[in-house]
Structure formats: C-alpha cells, structure tokens
Design brief:
Layout lengths: L1 E5 L4 E5 L5 H13 L1 E7 L5 H12 L3 E6 L2 E7 L11 E2 L4 H11 L5 E5 L10 H9 L3 E4 H4 L1 E7 L7 E3 L5 H11 L5 E5 L7 H8 L4 E4 L2 E5 L8 E3 L4 H13 L3 E9 L6 H8 L3 E6 L8 E7 L7 E2 L4 H4 L3 H10 L3 E4 L12 H11 L3 E5 L2 E5 L8 E3 L4 H12 L4 E5 L11 H7 L5 E3 L2
Helix pairs in contact: 1-2, 1-3, 1-7, 2-3, 3-6, 4-6, 8-11, 8-13, 11-13
Bound molecules: ligand SPQ.
Length: 435
C-alpha cells in the first residue's frame, strides 16, 4: 500500500496513542505463566502483539480477545504449556521471538520458532547463547544465530550473566528462563534498558530484586494473575511529538502516555533541543507512570547524543533523525549500532530515504551526523517493510513541500494500526492507494 501525504495547513487535536507494544507482549506472556485469569485492557492489537497471542495459543494457552482492547489470558501456572503441533510464527516481532525463547527454554518439549524474512535475518545468538549456558538445547541456522530455531528445553540451571549490549529483550528472555530454574539467576546490564518485565514480574509476586543495573530473580515461584491497564506507547506518541515540534501551526495533546523513565529518552532529547513540551504526570497505569504530553510548534536546535541515553530512545531514532534534519545546527548520534539489526538496517535506510527528501544526513557505523535546516521536499520513498521507518517518513512528509508517497506503508500496522486514523484526527488528509 502507498501512503500519500501532504503538509496540512495546521496540525491540531487530541490523540490517545495505542497501548504500549512492549507492555502488551509482556502482559500476555506473564499472564500465560500465572496461576489464574489475567485481564489486559488497552492491549495493542498490532501485528507484533497478535503474533505473541497466536504463539501462546499454539502452546495451549486459553486466550480471549483482543476485543475492544481487552484480552483475557487464563494462565495455569509455570508448567502448563504444551508442545505445539506446528511452527510458532513470530511474524515480524523480535520481542515475540526473543521473550518466547526464554519461556521455551524452560519447557520439557520440542518447539520450533520462525518469523518473516526480516526476523529470520535478526541475531538470536545473544539470547540462544546464554540460554544454552543455562542448559537449553537450541539449534538454528548459523550455529543458533538465525531462525528458524528449534528448542528442547527443561532442567535449566540458574545463570549469572552480564549482557554485552543493553537489551531489554535479552534481559527479559533470561529473567523468564530464570523462572524455570531451582535457584537465583542474576543479570547485569551495561546500561538500564526498559524495565517493564521487572515491574510486571514483581507485581505478579515474583521474588525479583533490582540494584542499579543488576537484577536477581528466584525461580520456581507461583505468579499471581494481574489486571493490567496498558498505558499508551511513547514510541507511537513520538511520531506526533516530532511532527508537533516541526510543523509551524501545531498544537497536539497526547493522552495517557507511558512515562516510564527507561523509555522517556525522546522527551529528554526533544527538551534539550528546546522543544515546546508540557508534561502533566497522571495516575500510574499498569504499574507504570503515565501522563499527558502537549506539544506545540518549536524551533529545535541540534545536539549530540550517545551513551546511556541510547537504550532509552532506541526505537525513536528514525523519527528523531527527521527532527534533526530541520533543527538548527548539527546533530550527532553515536553508540546506536544496534539500529543495524532492527526490523531493517535503520542506519543505512533512514539515511538513504531521508536523503531522497533532501535531508543532509551521513550514516555512521553507530549512528548519524545530521546537518539541520534542510528544506525537505516530497518524494517517493520506501518503508523497506519497517514500521518505524514508514511512520518517520510520514512525519517528514507532514513538513515537506509537495507530495510524499511512502511505499510499503501497510507495515505501520505492526505497531500502530491506527496511525493514519490518528493523522486524520489532527486534520491531515490521508490518501492511500494499492501501489
Ligand atoms: O520487537 P521488535 O521487532 O524488536 O521491535 C522494536 C521496535 O522498533 O518496535 C525493535 F526493532 O522494539 C524493541 C526495542 O528496540 C522492543 C523491545 C522490548 O519490547 O523489549 C526492546 C528493544 O529491543 P532490544 O534489542 O534493545 O532489547
């Protein structure tokens, strides 16, 4: 599908971003391992989270929904999953594959996990390696690096492990595997990554302690079912935060956004770029801080980012690159080599597609150098099947002159099925064709 975008006269209105993707995955997985019925409200009905539900159903979990955002997971405890009859399909979702690997490593049966062409190219050795060290048997292409992966789990030993790269997916997979060991698993991260798994496991009654970047979890405990109201996804809100800053007549309010400090790197960065943002903290939602963000037209300045900030905004870097292309001065993004192994090589492709629209952006091995104040021009650009690239290009189209055509825009449904409806809510005329 092609998405055709032109800059609207104004960009104003109120949006409630969809439920957080990372939290939705975790709510379904942890609910499946709990003893009793977990109710999830505001579950993200994006393709990635639907892949997690489908895999859990194939493992014998009784799940109803999503029905108007509500999912009911009837968990029957840590040892209730059954051997799937078919290949578990994680689709485009790295989170589904990596977190499920942690769960499957603890199961005394055989399972096979695969995904789409993008996911079959993404590195899995970062998870399969430590899971093998815990005693799981895992086979895959390239010595267990690439899916399809087959797993024969059970009899896991606890592990003490330091992650080479900050990754919430690797950390979460090992914490979930730790639930199936007879002792204490200890994980240390180089920098804090999103901590939704830790929060939710603790809320379910797990004996889990966090000290700085070191997390301990005790295995073989009963998990209690939860009622989880998923807060809005800040990674989805980020597209409107940047659009609101860049458009000359913008005033957008985003309601119910997750404000977990491990995810708010985009807010800190936009504020450092002198964005006009008003943050109003609200009530805690699903064990996570949440609140309202109002954004209005801003004159942004470039800046340097890297280090511990990167895991706090890794998924927002494609749209941050659009902000940097229009900001005054240079923006340097370092320490983000992980972008190369996301749904696409987000360094090469973000630079290539934004350059087509006139951005002055140089890819680096671990990020970008972007010289701002570019005049963006509408162009025919391509999502390369990457949902975040598709939506970042749509934001560029909102502030470009002329018409922008985004090819392969259907992938936006991976994380934000209502993206074009929300654009329309802000007054954007959205056209689509079959391409
Ligand atoms: O699930 P997937 O495909 O890996 O999704 C992405 C995204 O852009 O939506 C990454 F491409 O988000 C990851 C994120 O980059 C979701 C995630 C999580 O829910 O734990 C953690 C991050 O990945 P990582 O590798 O740093 O752990």
């Amino acid at each position: 599908m092609n998405l055709i975008i032109q800059s609207p006269r104004a960009l104003t209105g109120v949006i409630t971003p969809p439920g957080d993707k990372s939290i939705s995955h975790r709510a379904a997985l942890i609910g499946a391992l709990a003893d009793g019925t977990t109710t999830i409200n505001g579950f993200l009905a994006g393709a990635d989270c639907l892949s997690t539900l489908a895999c859990l159903r194939a493992l014998g979990v009784d799940i109803t929904g999503p029905d108007a955002g509500r999912v009911t997971v009837r968990g029957r405890g840590l040892n209730s999953l059954c051997e799937p009859e078919t290949v578990l399909d994680a689709g485009n979702s790295g989170t589904t594959m990596r977190l499920l690997l942690g769960v499957l490593a603890g199961q005394p049966f055989y399972s096979v996990l695969s995904g789409d062409a993008s996911l079959r190219r993404r590195p899995m050795g970062r998870v399969t390696g430590p899971l093998q060290a815990m005693g799981a048997k895992i086979w895959g292409r390239c010595d267990g690096e690439l899916a399809p992966l087959s797993v024969r789990g059970g009899n896991l030993r606890p592990l003490e492990y330091t992650l080479p790269v900050a990754s919430a997916q690797v950390k979460s997979a090992l914490l979930l595997a730790g639930l199936f060991t007879p002792g204490e698993t200890v994980i240390t991260e180089p920098y804090p990554s999103r901590d939704h798994s830790e929060r939710m496991l603790r809320a379910a009654g797990a004996d889990l302690q966090v000290k700085g970047t070191r997390i301990r979890i005790r295995g073989r405990q009963l998990l209690n079912p939860l009622t989880i109201n998923v807060p809005g996804d800040i990674s989805a809100a980020a597209f409107f935060l940047v659009a609101g800053c860049l458009h000359p007549r913008a005033d957008i309010t985003l309601e119910g956004v997750n404000l977990n400090p491990t995810r708010t790197g985009i807010i800190d960065t936009l504020l450092a770029m002198e964005a006009q943002l008003e943050i109003t903290p609200g009530e805690e939602t699903g064990g996570e801080p949440a609140g309202r963000i109002r954004v209005s037209s801003s004159s942004l300045r470039g800046l340097e980012i890297g280090g511990s900030l990167i895991p706090r905004l890794i998924d927002e870097i494609p749209v941050l690159a659009v902000a940097a292309a229009l900001a005054e001065g240079e923006t340097s993004i370092r320490d983000a080599a992980e972008l190369k192994v996301k749904e696409s090589d987000r360094i090469t492709l973000v630079a290539g597609e934004l350059a087509r629209m006139g951005a002055d952006i140089t890819p680096r091995s671990d990020g970008f150098l972007i010289t701002g104040r570019s005049h963006l021009r509408g162009a025919v650009v391509d999502s390369h099947g990457d949902h975040r690239l598709a939506m970042a290009l749509a934001v560029a189209g909102l502030v470009a002159t002329g018409t922008t055509v985004i090819r392969g825009a259907e992938c936006m449904a991976v994380s934000y099925p209502g993206f074009t409806a929300d654009l329309a809510r802000l007054g954007v005329i959205v056209q689509k064709d079959e391409g």
